[in-house]
Amino acid sequence: QSALTQPASVSESPGQSITISCSGTSSDVGSFNYVSWYQQHPGKAPKLVIYNVSNRPSGVSNRFSGSKSGNTASLTISGLLAEDEADYYCCSYTSKNTLIFGGGTKLTVL
Amino acid sequence: QLQLQESGPGLVKPSETLSLTCTVSGGSISSSSYYWGWIRQPPGKRLEWIGSIYYTGSTYYNPSLKSRLTISVDTSKNQFSLKMSSVPAADTAVYYCARQIFPDYFDSWGQGTLVTVSS
C-alpha cells in the first residue's frame, strides 16, 4: 500500500502558524474520520497530537488543530514555538481494514 | 501510568526470524477498550504499521507483510509478541509497540528498539 502524501518539509518563524497537508484517496482519508497525527522528535517515539481528524488528547496544547476536506487532512500549529520543531506523520484507517502512514513532514521553526 | 517496553535481539541474520516482545505495565492488556500494535521505522524513513492484536487473539496485519508475520498475546504475562520470518536487510528498523484505540490511533508508545538484519 502506498503512503499518504505529505510535504517533505515546511518552515516558519516562531509565533506564526503553519499547516501540514496529508493527501489520501477515497479508500482511506476520504472515507473515514479516522485520521491521526503524530509528532516525533529525533531519536524519540512518536507522540499522538490529533486523533479522529480533529480531536486533541489530554495534555496536548490547543495550538494543535486538525481538519479534513475530501481526501485531504490537515494539521495546523499556531503560535509556533521552538519545541514544535519535529517530524510530523499523519495516519489513516483504510477500507481494507489496514492503517497507512504518511511519508512524514519535517517542520523547521526558523 | 501505562508503560510499554520492547525487548528482543538487536541483531538478526538474514533469512532468520525476528522475534520481539512488548511488556505492558500500569494497565491490563486484557482491557476490552484497546488493541495492541506494532509499528516500525527504518532509519531515516517513515513509520509503517505492521499489525495489531486484541486480547482475545484477534489480529489484523499489513497485507504487504502478512505472509511473514505472527502476532500473539499472552494475557497471563501482560505481553504481546511479534514474529517476522525470512527477514531481509530491508527489515532493519526501530520497532515500536503501542496501545491502539480501534480502529486507528495509537495513544501510548514504547521507546522503540533497533533491530539490525545483518550477517
Task: Give a summary of the structure in a few sentences.
The complex is a heterodimer of chains A (110) and B (119). Helix content of chain A is 0%, strand content 44%. Chain A has 110 residues and is mainly beta.
Polypeptide structure, described:
The complex is a heterodimer of chains A (110) and B (119). Chain A is mainly β. Chain A has strands at 9-12, 18-23, 35-40, 47-50, 64-69, 72-77, 86-93, 99-101, 105-109. In chain A, strands 1, 3, 4, 7, 8 and 9 form a six-stranded mixed sheet that branches. In chain A, strands 2-6-5 form a three-stranded antiparallel sheet, with no helix packed on it. In chain A, a hairpin with a 2-residue loop joins β5 (64-69) and β6. The radius of gyration of chain A is 13 Å and the shape is globular. The termini of chain A are far apart. The relative contact order of chain A is 0.34. The mean pLDDT of chain A is 96. Chain B starts with a strand and ends with a strand. In chain B, the strands form two sheets. In chain B, strands 2, 4, 5, 6, 9, 10 and 11 form a seven-stranded mixed sheet that branches. Chain B has a four-stranded antiparallel sheet with strand order 1-3-8-7, with no helix packed on it. In chain B, β9 and β10 form a beta hairpin. Chain B has strands spanning 3-7, 11-12, 18-25, 35-41, 48-53, 59-61, 69-74, 79-84, 93-101, 105-109, 113-117. Helices cover 0% and strands 52% of the residues of chain B. Chain B is globular and about 40 Å long. By secondary structure, chain B is an all-beta fold. The interface between A and B is medium-sized, with 27 and 21 residues.
